[in-house]
From TrEMBL:
Pfam families per UniProt: FAD_binding_4
Molecular functions (GO terms): D-lactate dehydrogenase (cytochrome) activity; D-lactate dehydrogenase (NAD+) activity; FAD binding
Lineage per the UniProt record: Bacteria, Bacillati, Cyanobacteriota, Cyanophyceae, Pseudanabaenales
Name listed for the protein in its UniProt record: FAD-binding oxidoreductase
Domain FAD-binding PCMH-type: 42-215
Alphabetical list of InterPro entries matching this protein: FAD-bd_PCMH, FAD-bd_PCMH-like_sf, FAD-bd_PCMH_sub2, Oxid_FAD_bind_N
Gene Ontology terms: biological process: lactate catabolic process
Length: 443
């Protein structure tokens, strides 16, 4: 391997490279340390060299050299994922996309960007003509468009627009292959699912065409409640209120609000809370709903203040886990969907069954046209066996678990082989060089 890396680096000497071991190690990691199961499996797994191509031609040259010397290649955005998606299991090349920063064009409802464009940069430019991303992760300030689509699934905005895998939420992907003669393939329409959420195991995404949403004037609210299930039902009713335009409904059981240092002075002690982004034009019906559920507005930010100070987005989704672990490193998390539970009876059962061992954190999203709670519960970790028991109990009761404690593509989400993704990998990566050992179907 070392001989191949040396030959490869000489052949690609015109492309920016990083060989400093500490820097390479840092660029071999994401936030897999959220999982005490993944830490021993992924610690010490590092690449041999990092390349930063400045354009698609350099990506093609890296692909050609990797095929020539049979060197594994792992693509990395900003490394904000949580499952080791960009951690190389067999060393080799890390292709870091931070220089692929061109926003090709933006028009009403659509944008074309290079893979390394940050979501915040895309939104800033799109908002100039009244549009913004349909959905973003809580890491919106640092996450890249390509990294989000290759490794993410949904986020802030999913309560309106569903998840990335839903038809229409990714329009096109331009992909470099790792064949004997690497080529560029443009995937459009349903064909984008071949690389959507594939961890970069079957193609190097260089450009993406993504839909945009109308950019409303948003306002932020923190609503506190004395009872968790009241907070949860408020979130569900708000999600079902089609006449109120909302971008985020993030509900947190106590003691999670105590982990939000920047919000502690606003949220009453021992309270449960909902973090909300709602259109400023719908403020009146929103406040009426808060009153109906006897909630208390304990924090709010107007549209004019939205660009200043803290953003509630950074206390939602997996940022919740980040804040909680900063206070208590023994905490880990789950990812769950409460499907077919409109009255939240199953949610209440899980909340009461586990108590303080599994602390409820809900993000409301749209699935097949229906708003449901997706949970990112905080778990007080003791042993791997107990964590598996918790997962198995949820599944036995009808809760869908997207396991965040595995780096295997199929084991984390849908639990099935995606034949289209496997067939595409056979076509474009015949030597299995792309992010090896992450796709169970291939291995």
């Amino acid at each position: 391997m070392q001989i191949s890396i040396q030959d490869l680096s000489q052949e690609l000497s015109h492309i920016e490279a990083i060989i400093n071991p500490a820097q390479v190690a840092k660029l071999s990691e994401d936030y897999y340390h959220f999982s005490p199961v993944l830490v021993p499996l992924l610690s010490g797994k590092v690449g041999d060299i990092v390349f930063r191509p400045k354009d698609e031609m350099e990506v093609l040259q890296i692909a050609q050299a990797c095929v020539k010397y049979k060197v594994p290649i792992t693509v990395r955005g900003s490394g904000t994922g949580n499952y080791g998606q960009c951690t190389p299991l067999m060393g080799g090349v890390i292709l870091e996309t931070s220089k692929l920063q061109a926003i090709k064009w933006i028009k009403a409802g659509l944008a074309r960007v290079e893979t390394g464009v940050k979501l915040a940069a895309l939104d800033k430019q799109a908002q100039e003509i009244g549009w913004e991303s349909r959905m973003v992760p809580s890491t919106v300030r640092s996450a890249t468009v390509g990294g989000f689509i290759a490794g993410g699934s949904g986020g802030i905005g999913s309560v309106l627009y569903g998840q990335l895998r839903d038809r229409g939420n990714v329009r096109a992907a331009r992909v470099v292959t790792l064949e004997d003669q690497p080529r560029i393939i443009e995937l459009r329409g349903d064909d984008v699912q071949k690389v959507n959420h594939a961890y970069g195991t079957n193609g190097i995404i260089t450009e993406l065409e993504v839909p945009l949403a109308p950019a409303y004037d948003w306002e932020e609210f923190v609503v506190s409640f004395a009872d968790f299930m009241t907070a949860a039902k408020f979130g569900q009713v708000l999600g079902n209120s089609d006449g109120i335009i909302k971008k985020m409904i993030s509900v947190h059981a106590a003691p999670i609000p105590r982990f939000f240092n920047a919000l502690q002075s606003y949220i009453p002690a021992n309270a449960h809370c909902a973090l909300i982004l709602v259109a400023a034009s719908d403020r009146e019906p929103f406040l009426s709903l808060v009153k109906e559920f006897q909630g208390e507005i304990c924090y709010e930010k107007s549209t004019q203040e939205m660009g200043k100070g803290i953003s509630l987005v950074e206390f939602s989704w997996n940022h919740t886990t980040l804040h909680a672990r900063a206070a208590d490193a023994s905490l880990t998390y789950l990812q769950s969907l409460f499907l077919n539970d409109p009255q939240l009876h199953l949610l209440q059962k899980m909340h009461e069954h586990f108590g303080d061992e599994v602390i409820m954190h809900l993000e409301f999203i749209r699935v097949n046209g229906v708003v449901i709670p997706a949970a990112l519960q905080l778990v007080r970790f003791t042993t791997g066996d107990r964590l598996n028991e918790i997962i198995e109990y949820h599944e036995s009761q009808g809760v869908f678990i997207a396991n965040p404690h595995t780096y295997i593509l199929e084991d984390g989400g849908m639990k099935t082989v995606d034949q289209n993704q496997l067939d595409f990998k056979r076509l474009v990566d015949p030597y299995g060089l792309m992010n090896p050992l992450k796709m169970r179907a291939w291995t």
